[in-house]
Amino acid sequence: VRMSAKAVFSKYNIYPASLISFGAMMNGTRKTCTFTLENKGILDFNFLIYRADQDALVLRRKRPRSDILLAGDAQGKAVRHQPLLGLFPQGHFTLGMFTVYPGFGSIPPGGQQMITVDCYAEPLGACKEHLSIDISDR
Length: 138
Description:
By secondary structure, the protein is mainly beta. Helix content is about 5%, strand content about 45%. It is built from one helix and ten strands; from the N terminus they run E-E-E-E-H-E-E-E-E-E-E. It has one helix spanning about 55-60, and strands spanning about 10-15, 20-25, 30-40, 45-50, 65-75, 95, 100, 105, 110-120, 125-135. The longest helix is centred in the middle third of the chain and has 9 residues, at about 55-60. The radius of gyration is 17 Å and the shape is elongated.
């Protein structure tokens, strides 16, 4: 009896690679940017986007992930950061002046998922947030 198997990891591409900058915006305006998550492998995979924080840095040592930096500036004083509610995946979530959606999903082989980031520059000041993207089986 002849048997064969091929072990593979999920292969993916994220573009733009790591920085989404909204630049300077007038207070009270809204701007939208997107980034794309592409499945370059032969198996479908699941993804989960969440806020990178100190707890995530501990997880990074256990399981690598990809990071995205969001940056915007409404010119003025500092911004308070809103924590994510709960530990469960959310279809969309808000981080400071940014709203990200979808927050999770599945991508088939050769497929793509466009991730939308809305920036609503209401609080005055600069806002930077780090996102982590966890991709299954990589």
